[in-house]
Backbone:
């Protein structure tokens, strides 16, 4: 399966299953995975597809929450890592634009920081495939980096909410949207007030909340949405 230049950068990063490393990064921390789960309450018993599952870190959380989980990624190296680290999830090497599953196979589809890796002409195909494999009224959990932050070497594009809506609006109805990862100065200040020397936890928690949950899209680094498949 041919990889783009951007996907090869990601493939090289999977020499280490880096999503599993201890981290206070709010892209790979436990707090972030808990946030994603909070967007879809009640995953127990749901048939779940995670497209772009990488090394299996979030599919592990979905499994712990009681989901019946299938993971797919274009990176064989990532899938090998996921299979070695997570028991109870069915992992596949595959393409988000040509999912190897029958129609209406899943109740929930997750694409967490995935479509920014796809060439522009393939993003629509990935959204269409997401709809195809979902049951009627099925849900899609989608997170993307905001246009407010620079496009990294392994990404092709970032999104604003209007662009995301344009991609999904003909096939899905938006159920929820949250903006995350705001101005980093709030996170730095929170650490000032909660450290080994002294701690003012309520103030630190307030500043962390400002960072994790900005109220305006203009302040956000990440857009997290839930979509319901249109009949």
Residues:
């Amino acid at each position: 399966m041919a990889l783009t230049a951007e996907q090869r950068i990601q493939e090289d990063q999977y020499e280490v299953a880096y999503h599993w490393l201890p981290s206070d990064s709010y892209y790979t921390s436990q707090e972030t995975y808990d946030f994603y789960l909070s967007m879809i309450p009640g995953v127990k018993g749901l048939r779940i597809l995670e497209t772009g599952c990488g090394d299996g870190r979030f599919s592990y959380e979905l499994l712990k929450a009681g989901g019946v989980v299938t993971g797919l990624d274009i990176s064989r190296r990532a899938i090998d890592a996921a299979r070695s680290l997570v028991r109870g999830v069915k992992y596949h090497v595959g393409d988000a634009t040509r999912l190897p599953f029958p129609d209406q196979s899943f109740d929930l589809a997750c694409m967490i920081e995935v479509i920014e890796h796809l060439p522009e002409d393939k993003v629509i195909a990935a959204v269409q495939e997401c709809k195809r494999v979902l049951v009627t009224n099925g849900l899609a959990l989608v997170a993307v980096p905001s246009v407010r932050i620079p496009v990294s070497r392994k990404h092709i594009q970032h999104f604003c909410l209007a662009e995301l809506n344009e991609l999904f609006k003909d096939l899905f109805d938006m159920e929820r949207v949250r903006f995350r990862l705001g101005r980093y100065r709030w996170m730095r200040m929170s650490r000032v007030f909660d450290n080994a020397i002294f701690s003012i936890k309520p103030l630190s928690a307030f500043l962390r909340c400002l960072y994790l949950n900005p109220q305006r899209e203009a302040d956000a680094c990440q857009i997290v949405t839930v979509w319901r498949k249109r009949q």
User: Anything to note?
Assistant: The longest strand covers residues 134-145. The mean pLDDT is 87.
